[in-house]
Every structure is written in structure tokens, then in C-alpha cells.
Write a structure and sequence with these properties.
The chain has about 1000 residues and is of the alpha+beta class. Among the domains are: about 200 residues, Isoleucyl-tRNA Synthetase, domain 2, CATH 3.90.740.10; about 120 residues, no CATH class; about 110 residues, Orthogonal Bundle (Isoleucyl-tRNA Synthetase, Domain 1); about 60 residues, Ubiquitin-like (UB roll). A hairpin with a 2-residue loop joins strand 35 and strand 36. Helix 23 packs across helix 24. It is globular, with a radius of gyration of 35 Å. About 40% of the residues are buried. The structure holds one RNA strand of 87 nucleotides.
Length: about 1000
RNA sequence: GCCCGGAUGGCGGAAUUGGUAGACGCGCUGGUCUCAAACACCAGUGAGCUCACCCUCGUGCCGGUUCGACCCCGGCUCCGGGUACCA
């Protein structure tokens, strides 16, 4: 039994042991309380895991192991979100089937995950690209298709209940609907009898508009480079999140899911979730509820009217123009003949401006007068109608009433086009400069809701709040509008014109979509010769040979988006082998919802909203017993990478001229030749994050690279910190990247470090494998926790990892010394028990509070104390190992079984119970403060009488000195805390 | 612009939530062991001063509440993240 701490051998051995003995396998077991810990679904990318990924996994693993030790039956599964764009892009480039790429990537992920020693029950693994899995994704889609949202019962119902309503009462327009998202549909009204007379085709067309999964013409985010549409949350900064390609607006027939029907419930139920405030806030903003009113404006000399939505109906008397979106459906009807050309030109221009240009250019004001007017419903005045691209077609009614004085954008628009800016709200703030009602003097719009209405007929003198109420009353009384709530949330576009996704289980008959029968699921993704669109621009599935329903009907050719499979995966883990149901009753009634969900905040408005939506839908259908997927949610911070930027250059005329880079400097991304450097080629342990250095070229290898060896000599050469000061004059001032003052005629290399997201393209990726190779998984696990609070983002640095590794070696030495086993069965001393129970208390509290970082020092302190006490006692060490085992499962398992001689796994142990008796102190060393400043410490028993303490403290030499003979004004005594003397 | 976070030694970060600021680790300095290294161990390490004592200053800045403030309140500055013509 040779015994040195050999992390490699130990970790491999126990990982094998756990796997062989299925230690982490869980079953539904009603004799124990359940606990469900879920990690966010990883997409298995080709790059593998970097050190940032496991941060959350380690935390959840610690929590799972802890809960298990506490007697819970813990479900802790892992799987793969295996459909997705990168594998398909790779397939397009190489011709390799995305399934193969995905498989290879998953293997690599699995190897990496295994090496970290996670306690996943791998028998429950799911892959969204597996037909056994996507069969049920398709099944849920079919359920969505055959459902509608009943606003009366406020839940989803089978479409048959809608048909019954139509048969009985017909349909009477918008009042009956819950259509409130980006998709507005025109429905004719009809009676029950008329409905019965309608042809099947007409009935289906009408029903389609009400289904939760529906097909409609809608403006979508079309990404030409990816050849697909994208949903709003897949676009960041106006470009595609994957790949950064430009996106344009396009009208297309698309599958959508009616998430907007759930807007209010998604919003309200946030209040009952134990999620971080930032995520809840992000969801609230994304849902974007605003309460206001619709108002109808009659178009002069016509039967048309324009409906607007406003949150400020109180400002109705301040309307000086109406602005409608370029895509507004009524536009063509209401343009004055003299203006047709101008309007057409404007609309054309506005439509062709890409989404990105629009966003990059929000300050540009543009618009076009239509030549027509509406009549103000209260004053009868003429109000001009404009087309303006600051009005969004998809929000509200696609038209706004322009209240120039009280809305920033309306104000800017009015100013630009010299429209009147009538003021109707007077600020209540006394020192206001906006006293005057002359519009020309207004410098900016007064948007605030604290003010008094003026120039507004029956609203005069009312506060904004009261005026809003009053205005809605009046608007409703006159039948020109009504109080209305709008949501920013849009329906989710559900089709992707791509290959690598779940086929939508729909075929077309007479141009109408029908779902295939549930018994025919799964609809298998067919093979295709190429993963590209066809020549006529059809999605890749059009390439599949003889792929027709019943040999004659066309299948839907688009596939589901990446988030389809991830919207319900937490359910499948409960019962992943079930071939009869998406999840069986026993499993779902036992596991219910996720108790703890750990993942990145980047999913705040995408995945986390969709999974809540699907959960609510499945609940409405009576298919699952819970309304929310996850009770508690924690976001782990991002571990960023340090990127080294290198520039070679030469000084000419006091300018630093970049003369180029070489093949190790990748991806120049601007004209100045900013390049990125492969991280292994240069030193990266540089402590000053913001520092930039000029490195004489002789320290490089002649190819622009600065190696470790040379870096050391460079540092001793230049004493770079002094150098830095000399170059900038003053180190407080951070220079711009290219603004250099150089001396001499030498060639230099500029090195700069930046903290950025870890990514392959930035050459700043650190993988867990390297760390595990050198220090072991236990060290990695402890170190990732030791880095700081879980939620905080931080750059990866290995500074300090040695300390954690040393701690494990020190722990080892409590058990072994030069191959000799030191463990004995002596009775523990009071001090030893105290050290142990301090730890038990701390670790338990820390884990319950998800404060994993603070446990690590507690372990260190405990081991330090036990080392100082030369404690090798079984009773103490045994509990210590169990406490530590969630963090460092391998070393503790090794010592548990081989040093302590246990025959069962430490995983099956029980977390030691904390006994406060061991921590009871009989005395306390009171800090003695004079005027709040700590001056002295005096030890007293805790039972000591405050009066006695006071007299002893006042007699103390140090205290006497500070009193300078004066009597203290006041003495504050807090038992067990402090004594403060006020002089 | 708006919405969330955050700011503590040379570095990562602690501080029982109003009670001894800087735990623990890294780094650094000195020492022990060694032929030497590695490992390990011991001591010191916020800044300043007339440097082991003493004292002064010290948790981004300004002000307030309090016997007492990293913590609470008011007003800023900077950094990170999210989001944006949403009427």
C-alpha cells in the first residue's frame, strides 16, 4: 500500500469503480424525499469544453452530492442539445453528415465530463437528435397544433372546444380573440350557422389562425448567409447570434408558436419563482407589458379609420400628427394620389434598410407625409398622417399618435419635420423651465408622468394618472377605443429552413397543413445528398428522395428550431426510456419540477421563456402536474479568457506604424492590423490586466512571437513597470491602443491583454483536460469553486491553483506519512471536535446558500488546525472526508475506502450532523473600542456581569490612557460582541 | 438612453448582514531541510511614520444616520452584463 497522493491513479480508479457499480443510478423511490438538480443542456460543439463550462456543473454536482448525503433521492442527469447550426455548417463545408459530427463531439464531451468526476446518472442521458427523443418533440408539436388558447378559461384547450363555440355562437371579431402578438390576422365575423355552412377548407383556414402552432404570413428575421429565419432571441446586435451574419426583414409563410397567449401568465408566475432578479427582470422586459388604450382616428373624407395604441391617452389633445409603419396594411388605401410616388419611394427605402442599419442608425429621422389627414375625435382638427420607420409594424397596431411635446421620439420627429409641438402636460416641479407653453422653446420632450394636464378641455387640471383614467372613460363612452394591454413579446417563429433539426410532422393537402397521425411518429429526418437549399431556394429537406406522406402529400420542408428539443428535456430525463409516453405518470408525479437549475444567464429570454411556455401548455393539457419547470434557478458567471494581442511595428516620425503580423497572428479585424495571437506562443501570466508593453523586436523570435524564455529576459531588461511609467508619463492614464510615444528607431512589438469571452476564434481557450492532467479533477473542482462567488464572472487564471493542490496533499498527510497509515482510533479531543464541527456547520450552511467559494477556505482551515493538532483520529477524519466529498469526490473516496477501510462508497454515507455543544465558548476576547476605534482586547467569561466588565475595562491601562482622566460619556456593552467607550 | 450587477491589499477574494476590516489562498521577503533542486516546514507581508513599540491613514468619490458603517440613507464617478425607435 504505497501511499503518496497520486491524483491520476486515484481518479481513474474511482471513476471506473463508480461506473462499474452504477453508484449514481437513481430510481423513483417514495421512501426518500426527492430532489432534482439540473444543468443547462449543453450543445456539443467541436471545440469541446473549456474551463468555463464546468463551473456550473461542478456547483450543481456538489449540491447533488450534498443532498444525497443528506438523505435525498437525487436526480442529476445530463444529455445533449444535439441539433443545431454549427454541425450543419460543418456538414455543408465537408459533406460529412451532421449526425457523425455530432456523435464525435458528444464522445469528446463525455470524455471530458467523465474526467471531472460528475455524479450524473448516465443511464438517463438524452439527445434531442435521437428519434426516440424527437418523436416526443414532434408529438408535443402536434398537441400544440390541435390546441387553441381560450381567453375565457385562460388556458389552452383542444381545438374542438373552439369549433363548438363557433358552431354555437360564431365569431364576432377581435373581442373574441387573444391575438395580441406580432401576428395580426383579419378574421371576418360569422355566426354559428354561417360557420356550419363553410367549406372544410375555409374552416381549416380560420382554425389555423387560432392554433397554438400555426402557419401565417409574417415578417421574419431572414438570415441569407445561414439560409434560414431566426427568432428574435437568436439575434444579437442586429446580426445572427451564431456566426454574426446580417439579418433582414422578409415576409414569409412561417410556422409560429403562440407564446403571446401565455404572456400574462409568464409574467405573473415570475413572482412565485426563486430565480435571480436579473433573469426575472430580463423576462419582464422581454414580455414588455404596457397598459394603455386603443384610439380610433377617422380618416378625413373616407370610411377608413386608423387605430393607434398609446400608453398615454391623457395626451390625446396634444396629438399633432399620426405616424404609421411602412408595412402598415392600410397604407396603400389612404395615400393621397399626389403623394403616391413619394410614399412608395419612402416605403421602398425603409423596407430595404436592413435591421442592422436601422438599429445602428436610430438617430436618423425619416418619414413621409401621405397627403391625408385624420380628424381629431375631440377637437375635430385636421391631423396629418405620416409614414415613418420609427413606427414598428409588429407592435401595437403599427400606428402611433404623435404627441410631440410628451414623447421623445415624437418630439424628434416633429422637430425634424417642423410639425407643431403643442403642450398639454405642465410639470409640477416648481423650478421647471418648461413653464411657457410656446412649443418653440421646448428643448426636449416632457415624458414624465408627474404633471398637470393643460390645454386639454375636460382633462384640464387633472394629474396624469387621473387624466389617463378619465380619457379612457371618455374614449370608451364615445366608442372610439378602449383600454388595452399590449405586450412586446412576439410569437415565436418555429420553422427553420435547415436540415439538422426535428422534421415538423405536417403534410399538405390542398394547400392546407395537416399533422400526421401520432401513431406514425417519429417522422424520421430523411437523408439528403447535400445540406444546402435547392436551386429554387427550397430548404434542404426538398432534396430527400420520395419523401412524401402516404406517397402523395408533400411534407413540411422546414425543421424545428434549436430550442424545440430543449423546451421539455427536463421531463424526458425523468423517464427517458419510455416508449409509450413522453414521460410516465410514476416518474412525473415523483420528480415533478426541477428543484435547482443552474446555467448561464445568456438563456434568460430564449430557452428559459420557451421552457416555461411549454411547461404551462403541457400543464393546461393535463399532461404534467406542474406549471413551472424549475423552482430555483441560479446563474453561474462566465469564466472569461485572457486574449493576448500582439502588434509588430516601427517608429517613424514619432508614430507607431504597424508593419504587419504573421501566420500566428490570426484574424486581423481592422485596418490597423490588430491581430490575435495564439495563446501557447506567448506568456500569459501577466498580472497587470490593462498593461500594454512595447517589446523591442530582439526579444521576439523574429516572427513576431514572444516566448516565455524571452519574456523573462525582457522583463529583467526593461523592468517593465518603470518602463511603463516612462512611456506614459503617468501610469494612471491608460493610453489608447495606438497612441504611442516611442524612443529610438527600434522595432517594437506591442503586447496587450484583454479579458474576453473564451472562444476558439480568440485563441484564449483553456481546457479542463490540461488542468486535470497536471493537478487532477479534485483540484480543478475545488479551484473553480475557490475562484469566487458562483454568479460572478471572472477571467480564468491559474494563479492560486497550487494552493488548492497543496491543501489536498496536506489532507493526505493526515492519513499517511511515508507510506505508513497514521489513522488511529483514539478518542477525539475537545479542540479536534471543535475544528470539525466548525467545518460541518460552515459547509452545510455554505452549500445551502450556494456559497461554494467560502467552503474551500473552511476546509483549509480545518485541515490546518488538525495538522497542527497532529490529529489522525478516525472519528474526526471520517466526518471530515464526508464533508469534503461533494467537492473532492475522488480523494475522499480513496481515503474513505482504503485508509479508513470502509467497504461501501462514500457516496452512500450520511452528512455528519452538527453539534453546537462543541462550539460553545465559555469566554470571549472582547474588542474594546474607544469612540468606535478598536484599541484593546480583554477576555471575559460570557456569563460575566456587564457592570463588572465595565469596571474592569475602565480600569484597563490602555483605556485609562485614552480616557485621559475624563469620565466616559457612555459605555456600550454587547454580549459576545464588543465593548465601546464613548469619551 | 433604460434595466440589472459590481468597486475591499501586489492578485483571487473573506467579513456570522451594523460590532476586532483584510479570513483562506496566491505572490513576494527571510529562514530551516538538501551537494543542489523539487517537496515540505517556520516567520513576516494594507499604506505611512522617527519601521518589532506607539501612532496616523485605510473598503471607488462627496455628504448623512449611528456609541459604532465595507454593510443603512442621499448625491456622484468608473467598470461589467443585458436591452433598445415597444408608442
Amino acid at each position: 500500500m504505497s501511499k503518496e497522493y497520486n491524483h491520476k491513479q486515484i481518479e481513474e480508479q474511482w471513476q471506473q469503480f463508480w461506473a462499474d457499480n452504477e453508484i449514481y443510478k437513481v430510481k423513483e423511490d417514495t421512501s426518500k424525499p426527492k430532489y432534482y438538480v439540473l444543468d443547462m443542456f449543453p450543445y456539443p460543439s467541436g471545440a469541446g469544453l473549456h474551463v468555463g463550462h464546468p463551473l456550473g456543473y461542478i456547483a450543481s454536482d456538489i449540491y447533488s452530492r450534498y443532498k444525497r448525503l443528506k438523505g435525498f433521492n437525487v436526480l442529476h442527469p445530463m444529455g445533449y442539445d444535439a441539433f443545431g447550426l454549427p454541425a450543419e455548417q460543418y456538414a455543408i463545408q465537408t459533406g460529412q453528415h451532421p449526425a457523425i459530427t455530432t456523435d464525435v463531439n458528444i464522445k469528446r464531451y463525455r470524455e471530458q465530463l467523465d474526467k471531472i468526476g460528475f455524479s450524473y446518472d448516465w443511464s438517463r442521458e438524452v439527445r434531442t437528435s435521437n428519434p426516440d427523443y424527437y418523436k416526443w418533440t414532434q408529438w408535443i408539436f402536434i398537441k400544440l397544433f390541435h390546441s387553441w388558447y381560450n381567453p375565457k378559461t385562460d388556458k389552452a384547450e383542444p381545438i374542438e372546444t373552439l369549433v363548438k363555440i363557433f358552431e354555437k355562437k360564431g365569431f364576432h371579431g377581435v373581442d373574441d380573440t387573444i391575438l395580441n402578438g406580432g401576428i395580426e390576422m383579419d378574421f371576418v365575423t360569422f355566426s354559428g350557422n354561417e360557420w356550419k355552412q363553410f367549406s372544410e377548407e375555409k374552416k381549416q383556414k380560420i382554425l389555423l389562425g387560432f392554433r397554438l402552432a400555426y402557419l401565417s404570413d409574417t415578417y421574419v428575421n431572414w438570415c441569407p448567409a445561414l439560409g434560414t429565419v431566426l427568432s428574435n432571441d437568436e439575434i444579437k446586435d442586429g446580426v445572427s447570434e451564431r456566426g454574426g451574419h446580417s439579418v433582414e426583414r422578409k415576409l414569409m409563410k412561417q410556422w409560429s408558436l403562440k407564446i403571446t397567449a401565455y404572456a400574462e401568465r409568464l409574467l405573473q408566475d415570475l413572482n412565485y419563482l426563486d430565480w435571480t432578479d436579473s433573469i426575472k427582470e430580463a423576462q419582464r422586459n422581454w414580455i414588455g407589458k404596457s397598459i394603455g388604450s386603443s384610439i380610433e382616428f377617422i380618416v378625413q373624407n373616407s370610411t377608413l379609420s386608423i387605430e393607434v395604441f398609446t400608453t398615454r391617452p391623457d395626451t390625446i389633445f396634444g396629438v399633432s400628427f399620426i405616424a404609421i409603419a411602412p408595412e402598415h396594411e392600410m397604407l396603400s388605401e389612404l395615400v393621397d394620389p399626389d403623394f403616391i410616388d413619394d410614399v412608395a419611394a419612402y416605403v421602398d427605402e425603409a423596407k430595404n434598410r436592413s435591421e442592422r442599419e436601422r438599429q445602428a442608425d436610430v438617430k436618423r429621422i425619416s418619414g413621409q407625409f401621405t397627403g391625408r389627414y385624420v380628424i381629431h375625435p375631440f377637437t375635430g382638427n385636421e391631423i396629418p398622417i405620416w409614414v415613418a420607420d420609427y413606427v414598428l409594424a409588429g407592435y401595437g397596431t403599427g400606428a402611433v399618435m404623435g404627441v410631440a411635446a410628451h414623447d421623445t421620439r415624437d418630439f424628434a420627429f416633429a422637430k425634424h419635420f417642423n410639425l407643431p409641438i403643442p403642450q398639454v402636460v405642465k410639470p409640477t416641479t416648481p423650478e421647471s423651465e418648461v413653464e411657457t407653453l410656446h412649443a418653440t422653446s421646448l428643448q426636449e420632450a416632457f415624458d414624465a408622468k408627474d404633471g398637470i394636464l393643460v390645454n386639454s378641455s375636460f382633462l384640464n387640471g387633472l394629474s396624469v394618472k387621473d387624466a389617463i383614467k378619465r380619457a379612457i372613460e371618455e374614449i370608451e363612452k364615445r366608442g372610439i377605443g378602449k383600454g388595452k394591454t399590449n405586450y412586446r413579446l412576439r410569437d415565436a417563429i418555429f420553422g427553420r429552413q435547415r436540415y439538422w433539426g426535428e422534421p415538423i410532422p405536417v403534410y399538405y393537402k390542398d394547400g392546407l397543413p395537416y399533422t400526421i397521425d401520432e401513431s406514425e411518429l417519429p417522422l424520421i429526418l430523411p437523408e439528403v445528398d447535400k445540406y444546402l437549399p435547392t436551386e429554387d431556394g427550397e430548404p434542404p429537406l426538398a432534396r430527400a428522395n420520395n419523401w412524401k406522406y402516404q406517397g402523395k402529400y408533400e411534407y413540411e420542408l422546414s425543421t424545428m428550431p434549436g430550442w424545440a428539443g430543449s423546451s421539455w428535456y427536463f421531463l424526458r430525463y425523468m423517464d427517458n426510456k419510455n416508449t409509450e409516453e413522453f414521460v410516465g405518470n410514476v416518474a412525473k408525479d415523483y420528480w415533478k419540477q426541477v428543484d435547482l437549475y443552474i446555467g448561464g444567464s445568456e438563456h434568460a429570454t430564449g430557452h428559459l421563456l420557451y421552457v416555461r411556455f411549454w411547461t404551462k401548455f403541457l400543464y393546461d393539457m393535463g399532461l404534467i402536474p406542474m406549471k413551472e419547470p424549475a423552482k430555483k434557478l441560479i446563474n453561474q458567471g462566465m469564466i472569461q479568457g485572457l486574449t493576448n494581442y500582439l502588434h509588430t511595428g516601427i517608429e517613424t516620425n514619432n508614430q507607431f506604424e504597424i508593419i504587419g503580423w504573421n501566420d500566428n497572428i490570426q484574424g486581423s479585424d481592422n485596418e490597423l492590423g490588430r491581430g490575435k495571437v495564439k495563446i501557447d506562443d506567448v506568456i500569459y501570466e501577466i498580472s497587470d490586466k490593462n498593461a500594454q508593453w512595447l517589446v523591442p523586436i530582439e526579444f521576439t523570435d523574429g516572427k513576431g512571437r514572444l516566448y516565455k524564455d524571452n519574456f523573462d529576459s525582457f522583463i529583467s531588461f526593461s523592468q517593465f513597470k518603470t518602463n511603463l511609467r516612462r512611456l506614459y508619463g503617468n501610469e494612471e492614464k491608460k493610453p489608447d491602443r495606438f497612441n504611442w510615444i516611442l524612443d529610438g528607431e527600434r522595432r517594437y512589438l506591442v503586447l496587450k491583454q484583454e479579458v474576453e469571452k473564451m472562444s476558439k476564434s480568440k485563441y484564449n481557450v483553456v481546457t479542463p483536460d490540461d488542468i486535470i492532467e497536471e493537478y487532477g479533477a479534485d483540484t480543478l473542482r475545488l479551484y473553480e469553486m475557490f475562484l469566487g462567488p458562483l454568479e460572478q464572472s471572472k477571467p480564468w487564471s491559474t494563479q492560486g491553483i497550487e494552493g488548492v493542490h497543496r491543501f489536498l496533499k496536506k489532507l493526505w498527510r493526515l492519513f499517511y506519512n511515508d507510506n505508513a497509515l497514521l489513522v488511529n482510533s483514539e478518542e477525539p479531543s475537545k479542540q479536534e471536535l471543535k475544528a470539525l464541527h466548525k467545518l460541518i456547520k460552515k459547509v452545510g450552511e455554505d452549500i445551502e446558500n450556494f456559497s461554494f467559494n467560502t467552503s474551500v477556505p473552511a476546509f483549509m482551515i480545518c485541515v490546518n488546525e488538525l495538522s497542527d493538532l497532529k490529529c489522525n483520529k478516525r472519528e474526526i477524519l471520517s466526518d471530515l472526508l464526508v464533508c469534503l466529498s461533494p467537492y473532492a469526490p475522488h480523494i475522499t473516496e480513496e481515503l474513505w475506502q482504503n485508509a479508513l477501510g470502509n467497504t461501501c462508497s462514500i457516496v452512500t454515507a450520511a452528512f455528519p450532523s452538527f453539534n453546537s455543544d462543541y462550539l460553545v465558548e465559555s469566554s470571549f476576547s472582547y474588542p474594546i473600542s474607544i469612540n468606535g476605534k478598536h484599541r484593546e482586547n480583554i477576555e471575559f467569561t460570557l456569563e460575566a456581569n456587564p457592570a463588572d466588565i465595565e469596571s474592569i475595562v475602565l480600569a484597563n491601562e490602555t483605556v485609562q490612557k485614552w480616557l485621559e482622566g475624563k469620565a466616559p460619556k457612555k459605555v456600550i456593552f454587547v454580549k459576545g460582541k464588543i465593548v465601546n467607550i464613548v469619551v
